[in-house]
Structure formats: structure tokens, C-alpha cells
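User: I'll paste a sequence; please echo it back and then give the predicted structure.

Assistant: Echoing your sequence first, then the prediction.
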Amino acid sequence: MTRHRSTAAQAERLRKYRPDIQGLRAVAIMMVVSMHCGILDIHGGVDVSFVLSGFLIGSQLLAEIDKTGKVSLSKFWARRFRRLAPGAAITIIVTAVVAWLYASPFHFREYMHDGFSASLSIINWRLAENGTDYFANDGSQSPYQHFWSLGIEEQFYVVAPIALVAVAWLSRVVFRNRLLVGLFLIAVVGASFWMGYTETTKNQPLAYFGTHTRIWEIAFGVLLALCAPFISRMNTGLAAVLSWVGLGTTIGTALIITEETPLPGYAVAGPVLGASLIIAGGCAAPAFGAEKLLDNPVLNFVANVSYGWYLWHWPVLILWPSVLDREFTYSDRFRVAFLSLFMAIAMHYIIERRFRENVKLVLTPWRGILAGGALTACAAVATAIALQVPLNLSLATSATAASATGYSGTASVKQAVSTMDHPKISENALLSAPDDRGDHGCIDDLLITGYTLRNDCVIGDTKATKTMVLLGDSHAYQWGNAFNQLGLDLKVKVITVIKSGCTPEAYKITREDLGREYTECTTWRKTALDRIAGLHPDVIVVANRVQSTTTREGARETFEKLKATGADLVYLTDTPYPNFNVPDCLAKNAHHLSACNPKAENVVDRAEYRQMEREVAKDYGARIIDTIPAFCANGYCPAVIGGHVVYWDYSHMTGSYSKSLAPYLRPAFKKVLAG
């Protein structure tokens, strides 16, 4: 740790240009693109990049502090601006334009908020605050989401030179060496790692995106730079072994991490350690180290355009299906990777190199800072203006709310079919559809293991003497508004017993998003059925989306328990299943609205299993209520009925349309309650 004069041999080892680091930078970006595009399930590329950034920036800052005792902030920040601002600004602005033209209008303004945060390098905090799931694959990802790591690095670039100068000055005054700098970095690494590890189980988005939970990876690279003069004196044979072990550790641990691994936790320490061993081994410049593999023209070229590749691959990936207006295929993964690489190459030679090699920006640092600041401001202003731009709605709408009645008898459905190519709908009704998810009843999320009767589970006439239970999954929850109105009309208290993705019928369910059997459903169902028995309800309504793993025995087991309560049973058949995002389809396909109004024969999901459940329910005396006539007529299921968008996503009906269906249900339930 003490300052020393390097010998000629040591000076040769501590090279200004490190081919192994250049190659490792290329490996890191290929890991990131491969993982994001789904080409290879390999994680940790960003973590490797953090270590590299810390080592390279730390080496520059420490060398300048050694030479002058300070850091020229203007020169340092000018270099960062020339390196980062041009590509980032262009990516943010171009992405905004493409998103307006092709992306869902319902997501556009949220995207622009993300773009504005990205331009200011604070998007990581926005993502943490919003509870963003980095590995979500449900269409919720923002094309600016990948800027989170750049935000952390740029926050580091603001603070690092000031902090290092202050600590280095204090260390020289007190210890006359770098000891305090080393202790400071060790403290940062330890504290940040611990916060990331413990926060992962408490608030995973904050742990994943937070600067305080990730800065240890960059600080570890700075610590390596501090120790580089000492490390460079190690035996070259040992250095070679370390570099190869590091490469193996980087790739090996990156392949072990999966989307189910709690991240960052302790798992990211693997790629960080591996990258650190490669860097440490390379400090001694061994003749037969991993540099033999990493130093080649291909990796060198990829490393040169790695920044642009990182910037472009994610927006292309997220917007690709919208631009081509079709599902993302396996071959599209490679198309996205190569197209974004070509875009990165073009930006590198046309834009990036011009800024980096501009003599005026190099000799006059403040010009570089002003140029970078101007580009950053352009990106921020562009996204701010985009928030005020009218949404790109292709469907003709009226500015004011039309007379929206929703369902008003089977005639209204037939009328909707006859006008389904030119439905009458207000702009407000269309824009509010994705958030119109119902507001009556309760629903337990995936990880809840037991049912608890809460205040929000009781709807309808909450003071009535008669009780009705609505039991099921999210396809039961979508009926909450209808049953609330039905309860008020018929003077009955309705208790919702609902869990996401958990059908009432007793059989095992496996969920891909959990990567295992949905055991929480099994335990929740047992507590829910016990609770229902204790309520002694007058009527029990079963409504759910049929699963492909349902069994007749499982259905019989549940209906037998429900029958034993003495309640009258009602089986509500499942609603149509369009299997595409209906509001998005309406907003983007004015000239192809036939795609938004599927044929009735195509929307009965898993018909054979649905029929089986219906038969079992009938065997146990349940009254069967067919829901299809409230959605379909004359062979079609229109997306807009009575001025209301029928679905808020690909299968769940909107709260407003649900409420309008109370009259459809009333005659049947009036008879059930009277009986």
C-alpha cells in the first residue's frame, strides 16, 4: 500500500494500454446482449463492466493525484462527457421518435418519463421507486431501462474524483502514504455489498437498481487500481494462473446465475471476483495469461463499439415487435443483436470518434463540458416536449365522452358486432382502458399462502343478512364490479375469496414465472375452503380461468366440499380469451380492426377442460351461467361494446364493462336467492 518507485520492469508491467481489459470489455458486452436477447442464459456482464470502469477510472485519477496532488475536474468531466453524452443523447432522442411512431400509446408517456430520467442519469432511482422487475417479460419493460447502469456509473464519475482527492490528501497528511485511501475503499466495498445483500430480500428492485447497493462493484475496481503497483510485482506464473482462473470464474458463475437467482444478493460477487482476478493477473503482464485469448482483433473491434452496442441493443429489442407488428421469434433474437451492432458501428465512426478526437474539445475542457451538457439538455428537453405531444392513436375517437352504457342486453352486443370496424368510443374511454381493472373485491397475490377475510373482501350490501361468496382467481376478480352492483341491487353481502392464478379446483399447478409448483395455491385453497365453510353462505359462485392441468378428480374434490356447506352453487363459465392486448390493438390498428374483434370460435380457451369443469359443477347441483352471450354475437366478440373497451389486457375485462353486466347476472341470481 505504501508509495514506491517502480523499477523499469515494473513500469513495463503497469501498461497504459491493457489488451486483456479491452478483450474483457468485449466479453462483457457480448454477455449482456446474449442474455437480454435470449440467445444465451448468461448473467453478470454489467457487473464485469462495473469492475472495469472502476479500475480504469481509478487508475487515471490515482495517477493524476500522484503526479499533481489533485484532479483537474474540468478535464476529467470533459473526457466523460465526450465519451458518453453524444451516444446517449442520440439514443434517447431516436428511441423517443420510434416509440411514438410504433410503440403502444398507453406506454409512451411512461417511456418519456424514463427517457427524461435517463438523460439526467437518475433512471436507476426511478426504476427502484417503481418496483421494476428487471427480468419481467410481460411487455412492461421500458426501452430506456438499460440506462440504469450508466446512471450509476455517471453518478460515480461526479463523486469519485472529489472523494478520492479529499481522502488521498488526508491520507498523506496523517500517514504519509495511501493507507487511508485503501481503508476508505474497503469500507465502501464492504458496506455497499452488505446493503445489497440484505436489501435483496427486503426490497429487490431497490437492491438491484440502487447506487448504494451497487457502488461496491465499481469501488472494488478502484481498489484494484490502488493496489496495482504492488500486484504487478507478483510472479508471472502465478499471475497467468490467476488470469485464467478469473476468466473461468467469470464465465462459470455467469452461467450458474439464472432469472430465479435473487439478485444482486451474493451471486454477483462471482463475475466481479472473476473480472478482478483477470485484471490483477494482467497487472504483472504474464506471457501466457488469459490475455493470449482476450487479445485478438475481433474482441478489440467489439470493445471499441461496445458502448454503442449497449445503448442500442435494448431499445431495438423492446421496440422490435411493435415496429414489425408481429410476435418475437427465435430468429429475431439474432436479428436484434446484429442490427444493434451495425447501429453501434455506424454511431462509433460517424459520431463518437468525432467528439473524442476533436482537438478543441480536448485542449479546452470547458468546451467539452459545454458540448456534453448541451447534448444532455437536448435529450432532456426532447423527452419533456414528448410528454406534451398528442398520443399516436390510430383509432378515431371523440374528444368528449360519448354515451357509454356498456352491456345493455344482447341487442347491444349485436349492435357492437355490426359496428365493430368503426366503433364509437371516447378518447378518455380508450386511454383509461389499461388501468380500468375494477375496484371492488380483494385478490391475494402469488406468494400469499393463506386466505384472510379483510374489509376490502366484502362488497355489495355489506349489512345484508344473506351472504354470497365469489370464489376463484383473477378471472373471478374481474367480476368484482358486477357483483358489487348485483349485491346492492339484490340486498346481498358478497365476500370475494380470490387468489391470483389459483383455481378453486384441487389439482397441482406449475407456474413458469415461479419455476416450480405453485404450492402457495394449494395451501391457500385449503384455508379458503375452510373459511367459506365457516361463513355458512347462502350462495357460492365459482369463476376461474381453466388450466390445462385440471383434472376431473380435482374438480370433484372441491365441489364436494362446497356442496357440503349447504349453499346453493353457481358455476360462472369463463369469459372469452382474446390472447392479445386489446387496448393496444385498438390504439394501433385503425385500418385492421378485424384483428381486434376475434371470432367467437377462437376465444373459448381450453374448451375440453372447460366442458369437463362444467359437467362436474352440474353433477353437484350447480346452476350454470354461460357468460359468452354477454361478450359475443353473430360469430364475433367485439372489443368495444356500448362505448366501453371490453378488456384491459389480453383476457381480463375492464371494471367499467364488468359493472354494466350486473343486469345480465341479476335474473339468474334473483332466482337462486329466492329459492
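Residues 410-674 form a domain with the Rossmann fold fold (CATH 3.40.50.1110). Residues 1-12 have pLDDT under 50 and may be disordered.
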